[in-house]
Structure formats: C-alpha cells, structure tokens
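Hi support team,

I'm opening this ticket because the web form for multi-chain structure prediction keeps timing out on my end. I have pasted the exact lines I submitted so you can reproduce it. The total is 839 residues across three entries, so I didn't expect it to be a heavy job. Is there a limit I'm missing, or should I split the entries? Thanks in advance, R.K.
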Amino acid sequence: MSTRLIGASADSVEAATAPLRALDLPPRPRNRARNGLAIAAFALFTIATCVPAIGGIEVDLGALVRNWSNGSGLLVQLIQPDFSFLPRTLEPILETLQMALVGAAAAALVSVPLTLWAAAPTNPNGVTRHAVRTVINVLRAVPDLVYATVLVAMIGVGALPGLVTLFLFNVGVVVKLVSEAIDSGDHAYMEAGRAAGGSQLQINRATALPQSWPLFANQWLYALELNVRISAILGIVGAGGIGRLLDERRAFYAYDDVAIIVLEILVVVVLIELVSTTLRRRLV
Amino acid sequence: MRSAPQRPEAEVTPSASGSWSIRLDDVSVTYPNGTTALRNVSLDIAPGEMVSIVGLSGSGKSTLIRTINGLVPVTSGTVAVGPHTVNGMRGRRLRSLRGHIGMIFQGFNLADRTDVYRNVLVGRFAHTPIYRSLLGITTAHDRELALRSLDSVGILDKVWTRAGQLSGGQKQRVAIARALTQEPSVMLADEPVASLDPPTAHAVMNDLRRVNAEKGLTVLVNIHLMDLARMYTTRMIGLRDGRLVYDGPAAEAAESDFEQIYGRPIQPDDRLGS
Amino acid sequence: MNARTAPPLPPSRPSRTAASLWAIVVGGVVIAATVGLRIDWSELGDVPGDVLRYSTLMFADPNWERLPRALFEMWRSISMAWIGAILCVIVSIPLGMLAAGNVGPSWVRLPLRVVFAIIRAVPEVIIALLLLTVTGLTPFTGALALGIAGIGTQGKWVYETIESAQEGASEAVRAAGGSTAEVARWALWPAVAPALMSFALYRFEINIRTSAVLGLVGAGGVGSMLANYTNFREWDTVGMLLIVVVVVTMIMDAISGAIRRRITGGPRITEKRSRHVVGIR
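Hello R.K., no limit was hit. The queue was backed up. Here is the completed structure from your submission:
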C-alpha cells in the first residue's frame, strides 16, 4: 500500500517543477486480514443465531404481524390504567419492598467477611481466596429468576424463596464489586499495620475495614436498588411480591390493571433510586 | 481513485504569496452567560508578522484568537482576515475561510484513537467535498501535502501511529502539521506550549518561528510566558480583562510592561526558563 | 460504646449521636420489614437442609443424556440474546446520538431522554413480558422484546459517551473548516466507537441472562426447558441444565469480556520497521 500511495504522490510530482527530495516513509501497517476475520466472525455468528435447525431463532415476521393485530388492543389498554385496582396492589408492593430490604440487609451482613476473604490485600492465602471467588462467580452466572424457579420448587411458593434469591444475588454483587475495588485500590495503609506486627485479622479490622467502608455502603445501596427491580419480577415464578399479581393480571389480559402495577413499580423504583442517591452523596 | 480529476476546491493557492493581514476593529465579545471576554479591541497585523498575545488566563486571549476564524462570534465590531470579513460569515463560506486559517491548540485536539495520517488530513476538509471526507477518500495531492507537512516538522516516521500513543511534543507537531496541510494564509496558536516541558516548548516555538520565516505566514501566538514572547516573536500585544493594554515590539517589552499586563508583580511562573 | 476508657485529656470525642440514631432507625426499619414478611421463619432453618438435599439430587449424578437438547436450547437463548443486542444497538445508537447535547435539538433531546428514563425504570423482564403477550411467545419475539427493553439503558450510555467525548478534536475539525458531518465522522466517531462497541457486547452479556429468564415465562430456549423439568421435578436434568447455563454463561462472558478489553485497549499495530526511501516533491 505504501508504495502505491507514494506512486500516487509521484504522479503529481512529475507535474511539478520542484526538485525531488528523498522522503523516509515508514510502511503502513496493514490489518486488513484481522479486520476481515473479525467481520467474518461477526457475520458467521449472526447467521448461526438465525438457523432454527441448530437452535437459532426463526425470523417469522408474518406471525408477528398476525399476533400484533390481536395484541395491539392490549397496548392501548396499557395507556389507560384502571386506578380502581390500586388498593389491591398495595399489599403485594409492600411485600416486594420488604423482601428487597431484608434481602439487602442480610446480604450486607454476610458480605463483609466474604469480601475481605475474596480480596488479595486482606487475604494473602491464595487457596481460600480463589475458592471464595469461584463460588461467587458461579453464583453470579445464574440469572436471578432461575434461582427463584429452582428455589420455589425446593421450598415451596412464597416470599421465602424470593428472599433467598435476593440474598444470594446481593452477596454475589457486593462481594465481587467491593473485593475488586479493594484489589485495585492503594493499600499502603496496610503496610503500617504489618510493620507494627499486627495479624491479618487485626490489620483488616483496624485499617482495611474502615478504609473500604464507603465502598461497601455504596454497593449495599446499589444492591437495594437492584432488589427493588428484581423482587418486582420474582412473583412471576411464584416467589412472592407484586410480580405474582402482575403475572396473574397479564394472564387474564387485564392490561389496564397491569398498567397500574407497572406504574407503581416505576414510581417505587424511582423513589428508591432518589433515596439511594441522596444517601450515597452523604455517605461517600 | 488516485487518477480522479481534482475538484476546484482541492486547488490551493501557494501559501507564501497568500499570507494575510488581520484587522480587528472595535471588537467586543460577550458570551451567552453574560461574561464579557473582549472589550473594544482594535488591532492591525500586517501579512508575515509574528505576533504574541500575552495575558493571564481569563484575559481574553483565547477569545481573541477564536474570533479570527469565527469559532467565537463577535458581539460587536468587525474582524477582517485578508480580503474577507469574518463576522456575518456562515456555513460553507465560513468553513472555506477557515480552510485558509491554520490553528493549533493547547490541548493538541487530536483524535487520539485515529492514526497521525488521518489526523493530518483533517487539514484538507475545507478543500474536500463532504462525501469524500466522510468516506475517507483522499486525492493524491492531499496525501502528498499531508506527508510533506509531517516531514517538515520531523515526525514522518510516526505517520501510521495512533495519535494517542505520541508524547505531548509529538502531538503538538502533528497538530502543526495538520495546520500546515491546510496551506494556510494565517496561523493561529492558542497556548501551544502550555502543556509541554521546557525543551519541547522551545522546539515547538522554533517550529512556529520557522513557519513564519520560511513561508512568510502571519503567525499569532497566545502565550502567558514573558520570556518566550520576547524570544520568539517580533511584536507583542498585551491583554488584561479583555482590553488591549500593550502593543509594541516584543524584544523591547520591559518588566514593567509585563507587570502592567498581568496587573501584578512578575512571578517566577511567568518565565519558562530553558 | 468506648466510654469506659474516657481519655483524661481533651479534646473530647466528637458526638456520634446522629450516626447512632440513624443506625437505630435503619435497624428498626429492617426488623419491622423482617417481621412484617409473611414468612414462617421456622422454615428458614430447613432451607439449608432442603437446598443441600435437592442439590445432591441435582448435582450428584446429573442427567447428561439430555445434554444435546440442553445445548440446542442454550444456543436458542444465546441467539435471542444476540439478535436482541443487535436490534437494541441499531435502534439506540441513532436515538442516543439525537439525545446527546449539542447534537440533537432540545425538543427531540428531552422527550427521548424521558422515554429512556421510563424504559430504564421498569425492569426489563416486565417490558419484555408485556410485549411477548402481545406479539406471541416465540424466540423471535423474545429477541425483539430484549431489543426494545434494553433501549433505555443503551440509549443513555450512547448519549453519555458522546457527551463525554473530548471537545478538543471537534474544535480542531471545525477550525480547519470541517462541517458538522465531518466533525461527527472524524472527531466524535473515532472517540466513541470503541466504547459503543464495548457497550454493545455488554448488552449481549446482559441479554444472555435476561433471555434465560424470558424462557422461564415461555419464550423458548434454555429457560423454558429448565421451567419444564423443574415442574416435572426431574432434578438430575435440572442439575445438568444449571451446569450448562452456568458454564456457557461464564464462557460467553469470558469471550465477550476479552473482546471488549481488546476494543477499548485499541488495536495492536505490528510495526515493521523496514524503510522505503521514496521520491517526493
């Protein structure tokens, strides 16, 4: 390419009267092969996702159009909420909030020792550290509702499986994010403790814990925000809260009631986020 | 592609013969937030002059230099560059005028994730039809100008490097090359060395002086360091609170003149040293 | 708390009454919420035992005979996630650009931002679920629903990225006489493209999880299979499915994460230092 480029320049040079001067031009690095490969990989993957024979999805616009003419009425209902339904939603939404709060609080308690266990500066023992991290990563790879489904089958319908789901999910989030933050932070402060001959536990208690306090507080609040969203849908698989009512009304195609529930979830989510943002500004 | 006939826009008048004068007549600038950055500034700069604009930050230097290529619109007064009146110009005409005015910045203003070559070709935009620049199609003439500019500031070997990987001094040279690629009639520099270490700062100032000497370009440099202004420019303009408070030969500017421009005693920071 | 070892010298310890009061209030609310929940807390003691018992049923001897079917369904979930991510990105990049300050006019920008905020506030699963009821429960509609449900977050990322792009390069292009389109192409796009691509992949990672959830409510894919076998209480198959979900999700995360790091880190240019001496004016 570089030669062609210079060849092009030379064309105009011939026309010019100025004297020729040697110009050191480094060769242009080419990454056409790599770019081509990336594009090919992207195209292949996309095509493979559209082949029903191997599990890909069948793009069927006709069915979509047919269903749409049946279902569009429901969307019209969605913008006409039936406010008389509101009283019936209060108890489930309260249950949702309770689950969110209790789940987050329980996870907050458990997350502290686990986090210090999973971070390198606070746990020099590589074996236990990696064990905790692996468990946390596995925990996080399972979608929240999948937990809930399995837990409902194990311990029965109700708020308890929902609570356990939230708890597990929160522990995963907090431990992962805070331990990574501790890892990437500056730990000069711990050296002083070590130099003074403190045990790891003493050092953690006296320095690492106060130092990571804002990190924890931040993630606990984040977990609470997430919980409100998740607990709103847990009921879909029978794990308590407003989701159960939502799924029931949806199954009856009562989209005017559904609209109220969605509106309510929206309000609650926004409120919790406002509270959490205010608190975060104070704490951190 | 390379044999494509050159469009009229791609033809550039030789810069040396096209060096332009700059004339500001009673210019004031008030920003939409109410800050007045320039108050009744009048200036007359002849073609081929090398002028420094000295003042503290907030004195209106940056605003002054940006009125010349229309990046900041004037509130009142007139700005004329060469045969053109800048204020009132819009759209295609303003862009084509900007094509004749090179500018370099304190923060280099390169697209860091793009290679040096593409950054320098930005200098040809005003002379290139938009569809071509959007598709990245260049003419042989543009390519040659770009490479020649890079060579003239001594960093041709970095042509395929991403701008973000260069050092500060190298970035500023790419920026100068970008401006030279425009084949400009006027060169503006807004605090070109404020982000550089002393040796690099001197090198960049030297580059600018060479541009002025070899191509006869009118060069306007914003600077807050008194020794650089004295050393590299022939004429100095002092700004304080948006008013013109000094205009004279740079070499003759005394400490007291600088104290008057700064509105305070000279401090060690006001000199770069070497 | 530590009052018994009161130091003999001033200054006295700053008051912590406010902090203690807050701690009591928060504790009180949590306890009230705990008591208020309709949970028979005596069951809580059985939970670890139950989980252990069922975990043994699930993982002691997973039913690998259904692995091919599980992989088939997993691929269906991934397909939903992928197509959903592509749709989401195709829609959110132009919308997000219009919603960015200095790009779109304010009468476009503000309504778009409100729409993004509303879509963000409602959990994605609910949006997808509502759309699925209307469009029918198929993997394709699942992908559509994922695409729409993600627009809120994705659109916000796009406009925040564009707004945080350094102004400098844009100013330089304008100073050289570039038009708005040229500013977008040569100053903004190079600055934001890697971040946008990285966000697109991140959307895919999120969608993999959400698509499994959509399967639970009947959109097909591994979620549907999991829901079925959980209902049949075929625990060994459920165990196998969970293993598949976890392993495949982690693998996809790892691949996608590696690509994202490559993108944001920029391409590695292998520079061959051979020099061509050429003639030029």
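A quick check on our side: Confidence is low (pLDDT under 50) at residues 1-17 of chain B. Let us know if the file doesn't open in your viewer.
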